[in-house]
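Whiteboard transcription, Tuesday session. T.W. wrote the structure tokens on the left side:
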């Protein structure tokens, strides 16, 4: 089996990376940065986001594993002390995997160009200087005109990240869905939005159409992209999924509990 390692590049993560390389090679596994079948991410959830985007063109062939060298993460949910056990399971191919849904984002421009992105956590749209004004369509029907700071569209596994800070719901990643969450919408007697975040199923789509300004700041996970000349942005659950190798059960709600409620 071929593997690659992504490190956060701090001293502890780099040391653990060297250790993991040695162990895995001792067990006859081969390093392949280009076409790995298993990708170890050592650092935090942010490190796993980097690893995901590095290999997002071959998601059907790769399984990710995250080891946290800081606090417990949602993707980085293995402890450094579990490294030996993990290497043994990889070498013996004794692991299961879980698949989580992803978000597909298509940006359509007035000049009929378009770009497609995949997000593991979320996409956000903000307008650099002025109030963001967007018409929101759900499944081809006008839903509302949003005015405010911005919008966040998240995956189930990304629901514990930025979405949670915005007051969105935590969604279990076995649900094939995506969530639209407002950032500080303007609500008064003239302007009105629904206020709650919306959870849409896999066969639905959400389209944002700029009303005035067609230039935005977009983020796809940790990546920032300035979008100009935008006609519309379509969001839906992607056909692709991300696969995580599982060496022991660590249920999602336990990770939520241990991260946000208490680690006892
Ligand atoms: P960062 O600023 O270091 O990340 C912000 C925090 O989000 C970090 O503590 C990170 O964990 C955590 N995180 C990432 N994915 C998560 C997930 N699925 N569930 C729970 N927590 C998660 O930047 P980054 O490490 O490059 O991560 C980019 C992400 O930051 C974006 O995708 C977005 O979700 C998040 N973000 C959050 C806010 C906010 O909460 N107000 C604002 C902007 C961006 P680690 O420390 O383990 O990396
Ligand atoms: Mn981070």
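and on the right, the sequence the group agreed on:
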């Amino acid at each position: 089996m071929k593997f690659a390692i992504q490190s956060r590049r701090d001293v502890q993560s780099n040391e653990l990376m060297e250790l993991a390389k040695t162990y895995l090679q001792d067990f006859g596994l081969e390093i392949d940065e280009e076409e790995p079948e298993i990708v170890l991410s050592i650092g935090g959830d942010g490190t796993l986001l980097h690893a995901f985007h590095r290999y997002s063109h071959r998601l059907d062939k790769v399984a990710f594993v995250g080891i946290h060298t800081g606090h417990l993460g949602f993707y980085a949910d293995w402890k450094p002390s579990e490294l030996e056990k993990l290497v043994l399971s990889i070498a013996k191919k004794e692991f299961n995997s879980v698949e989580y849904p992803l978000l597909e984002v298509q940006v359509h421009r007035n000049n009929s160009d378009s770009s497609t992105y995949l997000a593991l956590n979320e996409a956000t749209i903000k307008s650099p200087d002025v109030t963001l004004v967007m018409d929101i369509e759900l499944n081809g029907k006008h839903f509302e005109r949003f005015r405010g700071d911005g919008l966040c569209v998240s995956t189930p596994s990304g629901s514990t990240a930025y979405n949670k800070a915005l007051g969105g719901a935590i969604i279990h990643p076995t649900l094939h869905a995506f969530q639209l969450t407002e950032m500080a919408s303007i609500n008064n007697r003239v302007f009105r939005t629904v206020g709650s975040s919306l959870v849409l199923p896999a066969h639905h789509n959400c389209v944002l159409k700029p009303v005035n300004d067609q230039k935005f700041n977009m983020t796809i996970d940790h990546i920032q992209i300035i979008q100009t000349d935008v006609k519309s942005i379509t969001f839906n659950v992607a056909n692709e999924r991300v696969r995580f190798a599982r060496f022991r059960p660590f249920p999602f709600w336990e990770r939520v509990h241990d991260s946000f409620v208490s680690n006892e």
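Someone added at the bottom: Helices lie at 11-26, 45-54, 83-91, 162-165, 252-261.
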